[in-house]
Amino acid sequence: MNAVAHFLEMGGYADYVWSAYGVCFALIALEVVQLVIRARRAGTTAPARHATVRARYRGTLHEPIR
Predict the structure, then answer these.
(1) How many CA atoms are closer than 13 Å to the CA of 4, on its beta-carbon side?
(2) Are 10 and 18 contacting, i.e. CB atoms less than 8 angstroms apart?
(3) Any idea what DSSP says for residue 65?
(4) Spatial CA neighbour of 32 closest among 24, 43, 50
């Protein structure tokens, strides 16, 4: 149990380390929520966008984009 407590203390920097992890997790979660909201408002899903791109740029990769 002492090893776990020592790990969680992070050599005396536990406040800084765990708060940094918390802030990063919160920002990533916020980004995911914003992406979901944006996708719902636009009414698009990933497969629909990929199908549109495929239909628009049929052919080879070396074909010029219009």
Answers:
(1) 1
(2) yes
(3) P
(4) 24
Query: Is residue 65 within 8 Å of residue 57, measured between CB atoms?
Result: yes
Which amino acid appears at position 62 of this protein?
Answer: H
Structure token pair of residue 25? 């997790």
pTM for the predicted model, two decimal places:
0.55
Give the C-alpha distances (Å, rounded to integers) separating 57 from 18, 32, 49, 52, 64.
47, 29, 12, 9, 9
> pLDDT by residue for the chain (66 residues), tens digit each?
688 888 888 888 888 999 999 999 999 999 999 999 998 888 765 555 555 666 666 655 555 555
